[in-house]
Design brief:
By secondary structure, this protein is of the alpha/beta class. Helices cover 45% and strands 18% of the residues. It contains 9 helices and 9 strands. The protein has helices spanning 21-31, 61-69, 88-97, 107-116, 130-140, 145-159, 174-185, 196-213, 215-219; strands at residues 11-14, 35-37, 40-42, 56-58, 73-79, 82-87, 100-104, 121-126, 167-170. A 5-stranded parallel beta sheet has the order 2-7-1-8-9, sandwiched between helices. The chain has a 4-stranded mixed beta sheet with strand order 4-3-6-5. Strand 5 (73-79) and strand 6 form a beta hairpin. Helix 1 packs across helix 7, helix 5 crosses helix 8 and helix 6 packs antiparallel against helix 8 (196-213). 33% of the residues are buried. Bound molecules: adenosine-5'-diphosphate and guanosine-5'-monophosphate.
Amino acid sequence: MSGAGARTFPLVLSAPSGAGTTTLARALRDRRPDVVFSVSATTRLPRPGERDGVDYHFVSPAEFIRMRDAGELIEWAEVHGNYYGTPIANVDRAVERGEFLLLDIDVQGAEQIRGRVPGAVRVFVLPPSGEVLVQRLVGRASEEDAAVRRRLSNARDELRAAGHFDHVVVNDDLDAAVADLEALLDGRPRDVRPGPPLEDAVRTLTAEIERHITPAAQAGDHR
Ligand code: ADP
Ligand code: 5GP
């Protein structure tokens, strides 16, 4: 079936937790009627204000495993100790309707999408600095200290995947980052491309995050 949109595609956003993909996805959807958010299934508990069926389909581990084993998920991953997955139905519906499907998924999921969803465009979202990433994670106040540390520790690994993405967008000023995403939808990308400047940025970010995870080691370390 052909859709209404001229040339739409799934847009995948991945980032270290706290970089702002949820915020970016909401802002982009608010601006663009041709963008729909892919509601994932997760075994994580809802945060205050999150609604079942809108932000996520909050399911039990048993229900998640049933969906996965029934082949209802186009990709899935364990992230920060919980399961997350994208229902295939989300992709089919968006294609039918000619809409851009916005997937906010982790780097493992983005890798699976690459092989399974032809035409998907994958964007890695970078925070402007490690300091800002920490501030955003702590400022969101949705996790305990231990969970924040776990997310920061995972961020180091996730950052390594940045170079495998099609595009990179820095989420410093929100409006500017949303404009970068809109430009991508309109087929005129103007972002940082994977390459040496990106590698430098990732190295700096990783070092800044490292300092937050091991402050004691750093204080006593005068190499
Ligand atoms: P993610 O979904 O990537 O884990 P969120 O979208 O929840 O991250 O953002 C983490 C925190 O950072 C939230 O409190 C959000 O309001 C804030 N935030 C996101 N983007 C920006 C931005 N461009 N400028 C300032 N604060 C931001
Ligand atoms: P959060 O718990 O902060 O909402 O999300 C944690 C991580 O899970 C984020 O990196 C988010 O992008 C990722 N995530 C959310 N939904 C999915 C999904 O359906 N599949 C995968 N692979 N990751 C997801």
